[in-house]
Amino acid sequence: MVEVNPQPESRRPQAPSQAGLSIGEAARRTGVSVHTLRYYERVGLVVTPVDRTHGGRRRYHPLDLEWITICTRLRATGMPIRGIRHYAELVAAGRGNEEERLDLLESHRADVLAGIAELQENLKLIDHKIDVYRGRLAAGDADQLWAPNRSPGAD
To answer: Quick one: how far is CA 106 from the chain centroid?
Structure first.
């Protein structure tokens, strides 16, 4: 079983037919490229082998689309490929390693929260600089803002 938070209706992949989706349709529905889908499979990020037609073409099913969404979101939050691969291996192994999965996700969550906190601090600096520039422009003395003096002949 794959745990996926519900997506807004407009972003939720539509259920493929029983025959499955082509790689192009799976890419379109998940928002990743065909190349990315092949890459995920090649580097071991999938939890089940992707189904194939008699002719060898990939066919994606709801579980595949859900898992692709998980991988994409983990990557978007900065989880390294090796971390996603480890998580995929744990999920694919089945029951008995839930605590290890939880530890992995909690550790990643802590990293994400630390990154958000750092971004918020950086945003405070940007907001401060914007306030300074607006104030100086409104006061008509923006030309007094600090700028490094360049020595003659220095580049």
So the answer is: 16
Beta carbons of 74 and 87 less than 8 angstroms apart: yes
Measured torsion, CA atoms of residues 15, 101, 40, 78, in degrees rounded to the nearest 10: 110
State the Cα–Cα distance between residues 36 and 45, nearest whole angstrom: 11
Buried b (16+ CB within 10 A) or exposed e, 104-140: beeebeeeeeeeeeeeeeeeeeeeeeeeeeeeeeeee
Triad 148, 153, 154: Cα angle to 5° = 40
pLDDT digits (tens, 9 = 90+) for 43-68: 989 898 889 999 999 999 999 999 99
Tens of pLDDT, residues 76-100: 999 999 999 999 999 999 999 999 9
Question: Which is nearest to 47 in space by CA: 88, 98, 100?
Answer: 88
Decide if pLDDT at 153 tops 60: no
40 with 68: CB under 8 angstroms? Answer: yes
Q: Which residues contact 34 (CB under 8 A, 6 or more apart)?
A: 23, 24, 27
Q: What is the pTM of this model?
A: 0.74
